[in-house]
Amino acid sequence: MKAIVKTDPGKDHMVYQDVPEPEATGDLIKIKVAYSGVCGTDIHAFNGSYSSTKPPVILGHEFSGVVVAVGRDVKNIRVGDRVTSETTFSTCGHCSSCMTKDYNLCSNRWGIGTQINGSMAEYLVSREESVHILPGNVSMLSAALTEPLACGVHATIEKGNVQKGMVVCIFGVGAIGQMVAQVATACGAKVIVAGLTSDKERFDIALANGAHRAVDQFTEDLAAIVKEMTGGEGVDVSFECSGAVPAANKALEITRRKGSVIQMGVFAEEKVPIRCDYVLHKEINYVGSRSQKPSSWMTALRLLEEGLVIPEKIVSKIVTLENWREGFEMTADGRGVKAVIAVDESIA
Ligand SMILES: [Zn+2]
Ligand SMILES: [Zn+2]
């Protein structure tokens, strides 16, 4: 089969090549891939700057497809099922995080598209526990983005506890920021997205999908806008999805007393100057939200089924597997929102 293989840790070192097809043994399910999303993590892997990636490996961890074979121990999934899958391939199974199914925090977790061959290929295998059958009304394109949607669910609902009537601000309007915006809107919150002048196209996508206000921080005063919208109180919850230190500090500034700031963006440095005075004096709940876990997927699939979120609306570009570089370049340059590789568009 054809696949995009990260051959060794150096920058680029990625090739479109023939590799053997994986086999569905034990509890594994073999999936023929329809679509595979290109994620920021894939760009870091491409650049050789993501230490979790263990080459040689096929990249890709956001996907949809159809089941073509199941292992002997598989019980509830059948050939022909339309599916997506969590990115967890295996965990240690006995740490405190595994006991509570917080697989995103297991330090011996192996992930699809990072340590285990992923979805930028014609076929991949995933364990039954991670595979989810798609609701019939959900498109393969939207289903391929269930993973970033689940990251948005984890941050918005499981960490941010966003409720109807709240005002929230999202810093960064890439794929993750857009997913948080859609989930927060589905929760009944009023959504502000904050970015830069170069985010114009991304702002338009957020506004078309329910965001209330987009703020260009180069030309507009975000703090003043928030004050006016919240009677001087500040937003209930902020989401930092950009990994920029000034954005994190602005989030702490514009969030109300006893509000929450959810850190999703990864900072380039390990140690960064954060305004802890805001955390202290306003009793702000400043918490991290890392990836997603099984409970996030259940909620994400329900939101998809009910049509409350439509992830395919953030797709800016679809490329073939052979032309994967175009999708990677768009993502690396920060153009559009989401690039998706169509591995087999005939799978509906
Ligand atoms: Zn991703
Ligand atoms: Zn564990």
Write the layout of secondary structure elements.
Blueprint: E1 2-6, E2 14-18, E3 28-37, H1 40-47, E4 57-58, E5 63-70, E6 82-85, E7 88-90, H2 96-99, E8 110-111, E9 123-127, E10 131-133, H3 140-143, H4 146-159, E11 167-171, H5 175-186, E12 190-195, H6 200-208, E13 213-216, H7 222-229, E14 235-240, H8 245-254, E15 255-263, H9 276-281, E16 285-288, H10 294-305, E17 315-320, H11 324-332, E18 338-342
Helix pairs in contact: 4-5, 4-10
The chain binds zinc ion (2 copies).
Overall structural domain count: 2
Largest sheet data: 7 strands, mixed
Bulk shape = globular
Write down the CATH topology of the largest domain. Answer: Quinone Oxidoreductase, Chain A, domain 1
Q: How large a portion of the residues is in β-strands, by DSSP E?
A: 25-35%
Tally of contiguous helical segments: 11
CATH secondary-structure class of the largest domain: Alpha Beta
Mean of residue pLDDT values? 97
Ligands bound to this protein structure: zinc ion
Low-confidence stretches: none
Q: What string gives the helices and strands in order?
A: EEEHEEEEHEEEHHEHEHEHEHEHEHEHE
Estimated helix fraction:
25-40%
